[in-house]
Amino acid sequence: MDERYQPREVETAAQAYWEDNASFRVQQDDKREKFYCLSMLPYPSGKLHMGHVRNYTIGDTIARFQRMQGKNVLQPMGWDAFGMPAENAAIQNNIPPAAWTADNIDEMRRQLKQLGFALDWERELATCHPEYYRWEQWFFTKLFEKGLAYKKMAEVNWDPVDQTVLANEQVIDGCGWRSGAPVERREIAQWFLRITAYAQELLDDLDKLEGWPDQVRTMQRNWIGRSEGVNLRFGLEDGGEIEVYTTRPDTLMGATYMAVALQHPLAVKAAESNPELAAFIEQEGHHKVAEAEMATMEKRGLDTGLKAVHPLTGDLVPIWVANFVLMSYGSGAVMSVPGHDERDHAFASKYGLPIVQVIGKPDDGFEYDACTWQDWYADKTDVVTVNSGEFDGLDFQAAFDAIADRLTSEGKGERTVNFRLRDWGVSRQRYWGAPIPIIYCDDCGAVPVPESDLPVVLPTEVEFEGIGSPIKKMPEFYQCTCPKCGGPATRETDTFDTFMESSWYYARYSCPRNDQAMLDDEANYWTPVDQYVGGIEHAILHLLYARFYHKLMRDEGLVSSDEPFTRLLTQGMVLKDGAKMSKSKGNTVDPQGLIDQYGADTSRLFSMFAAPPDQSLEWSDAGVEGAHRFLKRLWKMVANHVAAGEPPTLEKDSLDDTQKAVRRKTHETIAKVEDDYGRRQTFNTAIAAVMELTNEIGSLASREGQDLAVEREALRAAVLMLQPIAPHICHELWPALGGEGAAMDALWPTLDESALVRDSIEMVVQVNGKVRARMDVAANADKDSIESQAMAQENVQKFIEGNTVRKVIVVPGKLVNIVAN
Q1: Were 441 and a residue from 274, 464, 482, 640 both cysteine, which residue would form a disulfide, CB within 3.0 to 4.6 Å?
Q2: What is the helix (H) or strand (E) element at residue 91, kind and residue range?
């Protein structure tokens, strides 16, 4: 065996073996425990970046480890292939999106194989292929028939650069999540999925996801935003009524004005005879609609001249149009209590509207000042109602109940549960996406495309002009006949939000070649995914949508489980010079160059060793070189070991102290690394433990007799424990060490509990709390003998000489503390 480590030759040979033996192909096997390990599918941008390397190495490490536990492991790969980048590339480079995407997939697949990931490539899918999105279209028609998919005019987030609608979750700090452009507010006809029908279940089932990070569950819980409140109705001065929802009915007596959205019917009607109001509505209609943006923008409004009638006092309160009220949220109207809501207070102060205190704190030091906002004004705890007539002196819950009951008894309101979550807008006005399978007929209305006519195939030979979708200008695509009456009709030219495709791809991996059904029985074998790996930035995008979609598929009888992903690992970013790697920052590292120089195993080892998987990884050239040196050292250790000849049979009962110590370290490491991989998922500490073991091996005196036998056991264990992270080098080293079969098929090394037993234990000896000596004591020594041995230590005698020993404290297996003065 050559003692030089040559990664290119090693990795080429290992990958050829895996390819020739279809090593990662899996099938349903009801006799074995399954383990479905999945990393979020990548967008085929053309080249892998270090974030890909880290993400997929984490998943591959888990998958290979679980395979060593004897499980039937599935780890597939596919491509989130629709979306704006391909369309933008077509505009810029005159390359059809389909061709651009296919070329990128080929290149990224080559790189993934070069990294040695244990992927079942026979299950590969791309979401832009008609055989995939056909079933998405079919499922949408089922949801349409159930009333869970519908179209309506809606105030939307419009990305002026990407020329498409964005879901609220796709607006980041007021800008489009892909383009980065400031988002505008528009009214447009949109297709929605009724995710609100599942809001309570989505919220409740978060408690089942014990394998998810608390942070992600909290983010989803807050986004769903369940609240208990009251729907109540204010009368209108000239007849009719206006409905609002509030979580604070206890402050109803402090409502001094109403605020309605720009598009509210009352505002629109008032504007017909008020040019100033009409101009205000037109001007403010161009601002952003995202909540984050609206929370920070200047609050502006105008009096409509209309008056509402307070439901309990009968007082008249003015109705204002305000730019911070959204028509798509609730009724498009809010009751404003400036005395106890910070936003309402700022608005009232700006426009000189009344501010009335109706909540007080009985404790000293909480004096109310209507001119200055204080945070306690919005408190619900340790407060009582004031200036509220018959409701004075009540705490929050008592006031809530009393006022809610009064409104209910008078037919002016009722208790209700509300959610912050809004229905998912799934239509986009761009080209490179799955066509929405709806046909419009003047006589029949919106008609789903029959199953026999699916898929509605997206044309791939199109011309781009840079603005809008080309299929909207292609009569050959959108002109058709009505499936119901046979009359002339038109196809929907909007396409699906790409999050539709990524919301169910994990289930399709179970049966990617099935052309008769969306899913089959194998889906229930593999789902739910046992381990999912991806970025936390998808916490209220993909992860929420996928949970919703899974429940939709369950209710259609396609899957039997309630949730798609049992355990979730959210990996940190890869940083360089303290910033996220980015081409615009000029701080990227090309994984291909790294592989060419050091090999795939070095790339994998560094990405796992540099930081815990859920934390950001700071790029370090020195760290990469260190990982490479360790692999070279391991290779050389094995080569030198093999050159020493075949070791004798290990005789556990005849080992000397050094041999026992090395063997104990071997089995301690086996236990630790198994826990690090399986339970803790801290791969950096697992690698560190194996490195410590290889250092310990160096303490053996020779490569003869039992020294060689102990070294063989330790090296075999080290190779198997590293196999999930550095599979190529381990593939070569395993047979050199006498291992049978391929390393990837070997079971996890067996833990010998007897090797962990110590004949002696090192204990610290303290005098008055300060360490003065260390000593080895028999593992079975009693308290008295430990105390005597501690007192006899030379350095201890020096510090207690001339003093009286007041107390001796023995902590078994750890320390002795002598108190003397």
Answers
A1: 482
A2: helix 84-93
- Count Cβ atoms below 10 Å from residue 461 Cβ, excluding itself: 7
Q: How deeply is 701 buried, as exposed, middle or buried, from its count of CB atoms within 10 A (0-12, 13-18, 19+)?
A: exposed
Helices of type H across 205-322: 214-224, 265-271, 275-284, 291-296
Cis ω on the peptide bond leading into residue 724 (within 30° of 0)?
no
Q: Is 430 helix (H, G, I), strand (E, B) or coil?
A: coil
- The three-state DSSP-derived secondary structure of 652-705 is HHHCCHHHHHHHHHHHHHHHHHHHHHHHHCCHHHHHHHHHHHHHHHCCCCCCCH
Q: Is the pTM of this model over 0.90?
A: no
For residue 48, give the nearest of 110, 116, 125, 120 by alpha carbon: 110
List the structure tokens of 420: 């912050």
Q: Taking each helix axis as running N to C, give the angle between helix 84-93 and helix 97-114, from 0 to 180 degrees, rounded to the nearest 10.
A: 120
Q: According to the model, what pLDDT value does residue 17 have?
A: 98
C-alpha distances in angstroms, 163 versus 166, 429, 589, 700?
10, 7, 32, 69
CA separation for the pair 678, 658 (Å, rounded): 30
Question: Are the C-beta atoms of 605 and 627 separated by less than 8 Å?
Answer: yes
Q: One-letter amino acid identity for 196? A: T
Closest to 292 (Cα-Cα) out of 223, 246, 190, 202: 223
Summarised one tens digit per residue, pLDDT across range 546-600 is 999 999 999 999 999 999 999 999 999 999 988 888 766 778 888 999 999 999 9
Cα–Cα distance measured from residue 480 to residue 147, given in angstroms and rounded to the nearest whole number: 24
pLDDT single digits (tens) 108-136: 999 999 999 999 999 999 999 999 999 99
pLDDT at residue 295 in the model: 62
Backbone φ/ψ region at 297: left (φ over 0), alpha (ψ -120 to 50), beta: beta
Residue pair 460/453 in contact (Cβ under 8 Å)? The answer is no
DSSP 554-587: HHTTS---S-SBSBEEEEPPEEETTEE--TTTT-
Name the amino acid, one letter, at 64: R
From CA 178, how far away is CA 160, in angstroms rounded? Answer: 12
Residues near 23 by Cβ (< 8 Å), separated by ≥ 6? Answer: 17, 118, 742, 744, 745
Looking from the CA of 786 toward its CB, the CA atoms found within 13 Å total: 27
3-state secondary structure 299-316: CCEEEEEEEEECCCCCCE
No. of helices (H) and no. of strands (E), the chain: 26, 34
Supply 729's token pair: 């080098």
Name the 3-class secondary structure at 773.
Answer: strand
77 residue type, one letter: M
Using CA atoms, how far apart are residues 54 and 572, in angstroms rounded to an integer? Answer: 9
Q: Which amino acid is at 202?
A: L
The 3-class secondary structure across 17-82, one letter per residue, is HHHHCCCCCCCCCCCCCEEEEEECCCCCCCCCCHHHHHHHHHHHHHHHHHHHCCCEEECCCEECCC
Q: Which of 258, 264, 366 is nearest to 316 (CA)?
A: 258
Reference 641, options 582, 711, 724; nearest CA is 711
pLDDT at 465 over 90: no
Q: 569 pairs with which residues across the strands?
A: 533
What is residue 329's DSSP assignment?
S
Euclidean distance between CA atoms 421 and 490, whole angstroms: 33
Q: Please enumerate in sequence order all residues whose Cβ is within 8 A of that of 182, keeping only pairs 6 or more positions apart, or say none.
A: 160, 174, 175, 288
The per-residue DSSP string of 779-801 comes to TT--HHHHHHHHHT-HHHHHHHT
Cβ atoms within 10 Å of 61's Cβ, excluding its own = 26
Which amino acid would we find at residue 83? G
**Under the phi-then-psi rule, with left for phi > 0, alpha for psi from -120 to 50, and beta for the rest, what region is 645?**
left
Rounded to an integer, what distance in angstroms lies between the CA atom of residue 821 and that of residue 320? 81
Q: Retrieve residue 115's tokens.
A: 């990294």
